[in-house]
Amino acid sequence: MTANPRIRPRRLRANPGIRRLASETRLHPAQLVLPLFVREEGGPMPIASMPGVVQHTLDSVKGAVQNAAAAGIGGVMLFGVPSVRDATGSGATHPDGILNRATRVVGDEVGDALVVQTDLCLDEFTDHGHCGVLDTLGRVDNDATLERYREMALVQAASGSALLGLSGMMDGQVAAVRETLDGAGFVDTAILAYSAKYASAFYGPFRDAVESTLDGDRRSYQLDPGNRREGLREAILDIEEGADVVMVKPAGSYLDVLADVAAASDIPVWAYQVSGEYSMIEAAAMQGWIDRKRAVHESVLGIHRAGADVVLTYWATELAGWLNNGDFA
Ligand code: PBG
Questions:
Q1: Quick one: which of 59, 72, 118, 229 has the most CB atoms within 10 Å?
Q2: Dihedral-angle region of residue 216 (phi above 0 means left; psi in -120 to 50 means alpha; beta otherwise)
């Protein structure tokens, strides 16, 4: 033991200037994507379990994307909340279904200022709430679902979505959608594969947000939360199938999977900070138990540090505003 250590890591923490130079990870607004919900009927509606997040209308979403563009974020991910649902999720493939209409409205509103992305999954549109169609025994039918995803891909691409977010966790979904897009001439429409999507309790508030009617669970298609190796395998399969971007979801409880995928991937790796991750911080902040602004920043920074090039977060616009102010510089 020496009273005078020769090695002093604190030198690089001594004042704001040296801390700024020593900072290893920074967030930029362009690395943030805002998920948005658009409902088919009625006025804008607050989402009880996600304070500060609303279901937009085709009209109110325009203001939200203007603000997002002004803050300089990278893009938006659109989810539709239809007023009618059925067994095959037919609203998902109707050109005037809510998600496809919202895509056109948002595209007209923001032009190239934001990358317009869409959730390609059936759960918002099915009356049983599953991400696919069911067979006669009530099980999610992988290959029949792929046919529905192919149709969704065509309508979404034609509506102007630049990046299709394949979140259904069906085997072969990336290959099927890529083949269909290319066959129809949509060679430049990109695929964001929700590769490592876990069967998570943290999606709870989202199910409120889209008024999901799911009875049961998604464990026959989403990953077991304990499975790290399998998350990496799913990402590698999606890269081989032609994904342009792979994603890990949720983010905060899966940083090891994210780091594994980031180390193995030669394409961009994104992460989705999901509804429950949002609501936990909001709830604690409302109680005065944590510093909201610092906790929001730290939660997203940690996801970026673990390997995500881009983070989908419900705080995207607000966080971008803080970053633009230099609040964490
Ligand atoms: C499926 C989908 C879900 C989320 C995004 N896409 C829900 C699910 O798999 O149950 C969850 C997002 C969130 O919790 O913020 N369409």
A1: 118
A2: left
pLDDT at 2 over 70: no
Q: Looking at residue 202, what is its pLDDT?
A: 97
Active site residue 62: no
Q: How far apart are CA 34 and CA 187, in angstroms?
A: 25
The predicted complex's ipTM stands at 0.94
- Which pLDDT band holds residue 279 (cuts at 50, 70, 90)? very high
Residue 198, ligand 1, Cβ within 6 A: no
Rounded to whole angstroms, the Cα distance separating 138 from 219 reads: 14
* Any ligand 1 atom below 6 A from CB of 119: yes
pLDDT of 209 strictly over 90: no
List for the chain the helix, strand, coil content (%; round to 5).
45, 15, 40
% the chain with pLDDT above 90: 95
- Which tokens sit at 53? 């997040």
pTM attached to this predicted model:
0.97
CB burial of residue 99 (10 Å; 0-12, 13-18, 19+): buried
Which residue of the set 249, 250, 252, 282 is catalytic? 249
Among the CATH numbers 3.40.50.720, 3.20.20.10, 3.40.630.30, 3.20.20.70, which is that of 27-324? 3.20.20.70
Distance CA 157, CA 165 (A): 11
